[in-house]
Inverse folding.
DNA sequence: CTTAGTTAGAGCAGAAATGATCTAACACTG
DNA sequence: CAGTGTTAGATCATTTCTGCTCTAACTAAG
């Protein structure tokens, strides 16, 4: 939850206060505090990838809350909106300040508006999703292991406020994006093999369905055929990987 | 745009001001004004239904703006958030106050956060969708034709602020909901014939595709087969309708 | 009453999608 | 070097889906 040093600025109003038909300015309306909270999702490499299991684990970034707060000690990174700031910029700023992370294109998820959701007062929170590759997170995780860490989204630990609902919404949105396009968030590089692509999609889908069919369709053949029209082969082949070498592909368009 | 008489309340803060680690209260953070704007979508009956064309027209509710404002004279209904109010409640209130309309379950669409979107100052707008049957709107339209009217969403007239984008988002969301379920917003009653159902879905989809196939699949047979599992027949048959009588259906679950 | 126009609903053949099978090509182990 | 395990990619039979056709049942117009 946001808790930076506040800038002691006056409430928002235009230079020449606008007055409406009843002679009131905007400042006469009650104004909630507005915060952004972000579920940063990434694929963490599994320490000991069980044979046949996905080598990645869909994880969410947590930051340690200030000393002395009640409840869970870890939460999603967030911040209050600064004067005139765009929501996406506030998200980017919060990630830089709280976790030393750059990059990611924040996407709005929903506004959480329960009046009592924050014991500090009336706070609206705009939940966001940011998908960031593990490589871009690694530095921050190593530099501040006491303040920043990853948690798997399956069997998620208790989180304060409605952060659990935010993570759930973020995962839903991510799965929706990955349902019909090959790695749209570029968790892989520009070129990749089919296996690499499938590992990413399986980790995000959360199902191991290596062979077993599951409602919603993600099986070896189905997956390949669904992604095929959005891929084009580069001539080059993978080397050094296990099994028969695969052509490397890149996304079309 | 909202412009009611403001309640001269102080900015939001808890009874016992919460102080964070730097001793600041929430009121020390700059706070934007928060408004809700709602695209009320309905199916207006067509005056002269051309033969073969859908008898409904997907329309959005507009309210007249106060005298003397620049730009378009009609806009989406909206209001500023009251102290401690839920967003959905503010939407319901704005519809009652501005248009005398009750009912509808508002759904959040997105937050519009351009700092300069409103010349009166820093205003965040949370866009909403409400789907309301024409019958519930008819009274208000007849009672206040000078203040409330419907406009077709195809070839939408110019609207102030980013209201055109809000309508576009609302239509997109409505189409998504109607893509795989029979009339989920209950624009029809509990029982209806297949033709009535198809007229509603075609009006929402915007395509006339009576026979002609279109990418995205909505053809007579395809539509019937897609909706079939979500419908169950009541024994009764329609009477007085044109063509062969149809069984009346109701939604399952 | 007859004819034209419209809709409901079943039936059918061709098209497309699915899941399995099979072979090729590599790494790794002993 | 032979054997095992893994993956890539093509091929195939079967299931499922799609769009069309056909008949039945009604209204409205002449």
């Amino acid at each position: 939850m946001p808790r930076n040093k506040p800038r002691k600025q006056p409430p928002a109003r235009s230079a020449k206060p606008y007055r409406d038909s009843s002679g009131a300015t905007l400042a006469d309306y009650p104004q909630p505090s507005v915060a952004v909270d972000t579920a940063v999702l990434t694929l963490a490499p599994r320490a000991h990838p069980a044979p046949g299991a996905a080598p990645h684990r869909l994880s969410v970034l947590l930051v340690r809350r200030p000393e002395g707060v009640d409840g869970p000690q870890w939460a999603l990174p967030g911040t209050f909106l600064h004067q005139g700031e765009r929501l996406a910029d506030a998200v980017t700023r919060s990630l830089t300040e709280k976790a030393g992370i750059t990059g990611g294109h924040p996407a709005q998820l929903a506004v959480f508006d329960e009046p009592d959701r924050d014991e500090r007062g009336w706070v609206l929170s705009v939940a966001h999703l940011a998908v960031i590759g593990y490589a871009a997170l690694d530095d921050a995780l190593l530099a501040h292991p006491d303040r920043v860490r990853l948690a798997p989204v399956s069997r998620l630990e208790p989180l304060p406020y409605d952060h659990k609902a935010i993570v759930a919404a973020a995962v839903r949105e991510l799965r929706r994006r990955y349902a019909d396009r090959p790695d749209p968030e570029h968790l892989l590089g520009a070129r990749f093999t089919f296996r690499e692509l499938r590992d990413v999609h399986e980790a995000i889908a959360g199902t191991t369905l290596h062979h077993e069919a599951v409602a919603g369709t993600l099986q070896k053949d189905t997956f390949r055929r669904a992604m095929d029209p959005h891929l084009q082969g580069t001539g080059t082949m993978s080397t050094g990987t296990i099994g028969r070498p695969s052509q490397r592909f890149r996304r079309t368009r």
